[in-house]
Amino acid sequence: MKKFIDTLQNIWKIEELRNKILLTLGLLFIYRVGSNVPLPGVDINSLSQLQDQTGSGLMGLLNAFTGGAFANASILALGIMPYISASIVIQLLGLAVPSIQKLQKDGESGRQKITQMTRYLTIAICLVQAPSYVTNLMAQGVGYVISDQLFWFLSITTLVAGTIFAMWLGERITDRGIGNGISILIMVGIIASFPISIVQEFTARLEGGAGGLITIVLELAAFYLVVMFAIGLTQAVRRVPLQYAARNAAGGGQAGRPLGREYLPLRVNASGVMPIIFAQAIMFIPVTVAQFAQTEGDSWVITYFSDFTGFWYNLVFAVLIIGFTYFYTAIQVNTNNIADDLKRNGGFVPGVKPGRATAEYLDEILSRITLPGAILLALLAILPAFAMQLNMTTQWAQFYGGTSLLIIVGVILDTLMQIESYLLNRHYDGLMKSGRLKGRSTANVM
């Protein structure tokens, strides 16, 4: 406890770090206030139907990512998700469009142009999603005290402006605060429902006669183990040894520094949370198509793919996650570029020829470690289904794995890694008693 207090004092002593943390907390407070401000003209007494509809499914996922703003008909109802969607589209286009590939290799100038393209695409996605959201509001019977045309125009304009504002907040946190701003906004939205989930679970267990205090203790112990499992999956790496010819020729290092051993870390879960997001989006397609078709032969599709705790739903879900893990890992980790960079800098893997042979060697290692990583990721994604089978409340069970837990773990590790860097650079003790934190630069959200 004393070490923890000393660490907090050290953090407060570093003026730059203190200002960054305070700025981040201030911007997050503004974001949470905005999430509870309703759209102009909405009758807040008529939101109960919308809140019931967003209890599960795709809308439940969107509501969790926006911290309840989606179900509150808030000015930030779309949240930061259109920006995330635009970022994913730009990443996928980078595989097929040569001009975007060139921008990705142009350093800082290329990054700025891609960021600008992502912003424009975000607005375009908002202009599609905002009318759909307003249409759903009106279909659900959400009341409003102004005319239809005025409510339509004001709501769409406000929703687009709200997403742009959330995007601006995220970029300010990234530039002047601590951590990845976009990822932190999503994490804060998810954590916002965590206290309510715990209270609901405690109430159900203690008052409902469903196990009592012993069951709650066992659930908390299981939750701790699941969190440790998620942290291990996030941080697990396969270290490939490297050598540099120039440093060896210099007699053990450059500028009088010892050579030491260097490694290339290949992550077991290089794709992060994206395979789960892709798989969840795909899983909602059969039900949506079947509902629009409205034929008797498609009733089994609705039955199986609407049951989130069912065997077939989770089997298909797990298979999709494994497939998307390989797909997104291939996008994220380009072994040819890694091999070229090593060759250009005089680096090589001992016993492997530089260039193409190195790329093939790294690709083989990546293929081997991706399989267990994909299986473990799929297992983590379907853990909430097992939790619901044990009669846990739906909201509490969602924190036992899946997208929510991985985002929380990834963002916290990334933020703590940045704080630790400030401490170590100022010659203070780090956050860990031994070793260093291994975070993820983008928390795997984008």
TrEMBL record:
It comes from the Bacteria. The keyword Calcium does not apply. Keywords: Cell membrane, Membrane, Protein transport, Translocation, Transmembrane, Transmembrane helix, Transport. It is a multi-pass membrane protein. Its main location: membrane. The chain crosses the membrane at residues 21-39, 69-97, 118-138, 150-170, 177-198, 210-233, 268-290, 310-328, 365-387, 399-417. Gene3D superfamilies: SecY subunit domain. PANTHER family: SECY/SEC61-ALPHA FAMILY MEMBER. This is Protein translocase subunit SecY. The lineage of its organism: Bacteria, Pseudomonadati, Bacteroidota, Flavobacteriia, Flavobacteriales.
